[in-house]
Amino acid sequence: MAFEGSSMQKGKTEITFKKQGQAREIWRRFKKSKGAVIGLVMLVAMLAVILLADVIAPYSLATKQNLSQKLAPPSSGHIFGCDAYGRDLFARVLHGGRTSLSIAVIATMTSCLLGSILGAVAGYFGKAVDSVIMRALDIFMSVPDILFTMAVVVALGANFINLLVALTLAYFTNYVRLVRSQVLNLSELEYVEAARAGGAGSARIIATHIIPNAMGVIIVNTTLNVAKIILYESTLSFLGLGMPPPAPEWGLMLSEARSFLRTSPHLLIFPAAAIVLSACSVNLIGDGLRDALDPHLKS
Amino acid sequence: MENKGENILLDIENLKVIYKTDLETVEAVNDVSLAVRRGRTLGLVGETGAGKTTTALSILRLLPSTTGRILSGKIEFNGEDLLKIDENMMRVIRGNRIAMVFQDPMTSLNPVMTVGDQIAEAIELHNGKMPKEEIDRRVENILQMVGIIPQRRFEYPHQFSGGMKQRVVIAIALSCEPELLIADEPTTALDVTIQAQVLNMIKELRDRLGTAMLLITHDLGIVAQICDDVAVMYAGEVIESGSVEDVFTGDARHPYTAGLFNSLPDLHSQAKRLKPIPGLMPDPSNLPPGCVFAPRCESRMDACEAHRPKTVQRGSHRLRCHLFGAGQAPAVGGQGR
Ligand SMILES: Nc1ncnc2c1ncn2[C@@H]1O[C@H](COP(=O)(O)OP(=O)(O)OP(=O)(O)O)[C@@H](O)[C@H]1O
Ligand SMILES: [Mg+2]
Fold first, then answer.
1. Is residue B117 part of a domain?
2. What is the ipTM of this complex?
3. How far is the CA of B52 from the centre of ligand 2 (A)?
4. How many other C-beta atoms can be found within 10 angstroms of the C-beta atom of residue A68?
5. What global pTM score does this model have?
6. Is residue A104 within a helix (H) or strand (E), and if so which, with residue range?
7. How confident is the model at residue B336 (pLDDT cuts 50, 70, 90)?
8. Nearest CA distance, B94 vs chain A (angstrom)
9. Under 8 Å CB-to-CB from A262, ≥6 apart: which residues?
10. Across the strands, what pairs with B34?
11. Which domain holds residue A148?
């Protein structure tokens, strides 16, 4: 196909185009998936609104009590209505998003990073290294997540950083097992053997040959986890172990809403919708990204 | 053996390799001695399971770390025993001075990296300080050399045909201009017409770059075409070795080698009936006490089942068979191989 003279002449421009290419190529493939684009638009819109929260509705609105507006339904003054203390629900959802989403995203990344490194090391080196890591992991996993997180938060106190630590420790175990099994499979393959025969060291082989090939699976899991962590974080807040009040936080808002389910469902609907939307958009993006990273699907 | 010349690049002596699992110990390579001369090609032939790949992996010290073990022997490369140097030194040699091409091009390339990046990676690995442009230029040169238009370097392996992939694999192997190229059945996975093309290309590049080669194959035709020397392996032992003339037209021939020739379809002479060697190779975890080939050998004598034959040297021709016993061998070892 490319043997004709014309493509030989085009060579130069093609090269410059393709050099910046890898990322652009992935983006091009990503754009092809409708779901992924919708997810991305949703997420960007949500992030923009949340980042601009201070401009749209000052933080004071989210914490200022105004008992005359107690449980007020949505209206032109308070588009999402007000909660049991008369605080503006819209402002609380916005500012709550900051905490909830940043905790979810950061905790996902830290647990993914920690877990992937441990999993890669265990899978690649095998033998004693593997045994030590996996037995330690068994101990970790024998304690139920929720109990473990509770212990950390109770011991260290509930704040942003400790919550991150607790969530990371609760979730990294999944990645260790996932990445380890991927690495075990991939290390068998001939191109890893070939890379070794070419003189590549272990770190390089893991970084350039194994991780990129395991990326699809890791990404899908990561995006699933963002959603899980948002929900898990809500559970913690629900149990009174999340961010301390009056700081707004989606899970906390759900827990506060439960006493007024019958009379004021809007207290539940808005934060719940925010959780569902963010979880959905992240999952859609993850699916699209997985496909985009796989050169086989390129067309 | 005493006076082997300066011209020996790789010298394997009495190599013994086992695979040890919980269930059994496989004696994959037994007392193997081989030599590859500088700039020359040694063909390593033998049926499946003979220990060819194991020998090749031992040279690069890439045996599976959990099971494979080199028990004894020497592997001298440029006079330096590869079994004695540390892993870091070994990494510098791998890919840079000794490169290897594996059997199956379909799986020897990383599916998520472009072909060009994979070649660049190999160059970069051993030329840390080379500027980017220089690497790019070399990638293009090497692709051209293996007959792929350089623009295709931005494509992924799955966009290439099998023969093209093997060309890329060879390009990677030659990218650092190694002194020795180990090619483990480089054309077996390709279809016949492509085989010839790839083989010719290997031959051409070898001549152009002056690379020495250890070519593993089970095809005596390929050996005749491009090798200078041959070693025939059977059940972990080299049972016959020498120059191509020694083995193909010499006056002595190991019964196993004779069997290999008889089982070869011959297009030129009038069609004789193919005569495959009866029986199977012995189980390498349970080798017979005498000659490993004795159970299948038509010229079997009593001595064959009793003890293992010693290697007999006749000039550059070496045979491991009781038929050519002590009496007929020259008194002193010959003049190298
Ligand atoms: N990882 C391993 N563990 C245990 N035994 C092995 C292993 N690899 C190879 N063997 C055994 O060692 C012997 C030699 O195998 P090797 O792969 O070197 O043969 P080969 O000559 O390359 O054969 P082929 O032509 O099929 O590639 C065989 O009996 C094989 O079963
Ligand atoms: Mg083999």
1. yes
2. 0.81
3. 6
4. 8
5. 0.78
6. helix A89-125
7. very low
8. 4
9. none
10. B12
11. 34-297
Exposed, middle or buried by CB within 10 Å (0-12, 13-18, 19+), for B270?
Answer: exposed
CA of B209 from ligand 2 middle (Å) equals 26
> In angstroms, rounded to a whole number, what is the distance separating the alpha carbons of residues A193 and A187?
8
Which residues are in the CB-under-5-Å shell of ion ligand 2? B 53
Token pair in block for residue B266: 């011959």
Half-sphere exposure of B109 (CA within 13 A, CB side): 30
pLDDT digits (tens, 9 = 90+) for A179-224: 999 888 888 888 999 999 999 988 889 888 888 888 888 888 888 8
A-chain CB neighbours of B65 within 8 Å are: 126
Contact residues for A197 (Cβ-Cβ < 8 A; gap 6+): B60, B62, B94, B95, B99, B100, B102
Domain span holding position B154: 109-175
- Whether ligand 1 lies within 6 angstroms of the CB of B282 is answered as no
Q: Which ligand is closest in space to the CA of residue B184? A: 2
State whether the beta carbon of B309 lies less than 6 angstroms from ligand 1: no
Per the domain annotation, does B81 fall within a domain?
A: no
Q: What is the CATH number for A92?
A: 1.10.3720.10
Residue B318 pLDDT greater than 90, yes or no: yes
Rounded to 5°, angle at Cα B92 from B19 and A196: 45
Q: Count of CB atoms within 10 A of residue A150's CB?
A: 16
The shortest CB-CB distance from A199 to any of B125, B149, B158 is to B125
B64 Cβ closer than 6 Å to some ligand 1 atom? yes
How many structural domains are present in chain B? Answer: 2
In a domain, B52, yes or no: no
Alpha helices in chain B (DSSP H): 52-59, 87-93, 115-126, 132-145, 162-174, 192-209, 220-226, 244-249, 255-262, 302-306
- Structure-token pair, residue B50: 């003979």
Closest by CA position to A290, among listed A39, A18, A41, A43:
A39
Q: For residue range A108-124, list pLDDT tens digits in order.
A: 999 999 999 999 889 88
Q: Which residues of A touch B150 (CB under 8 A)?
A: 11
Of the candidates B74, B26, B75, the one whose C-alpha atom is nearest the C-alpha of residue B51 is B26
Task: State which ligand 1 atom lies nearest to the alpha carbon of B55.
Answer: 18
Ligand 1 centroid – CA A78 distance (Å): 75
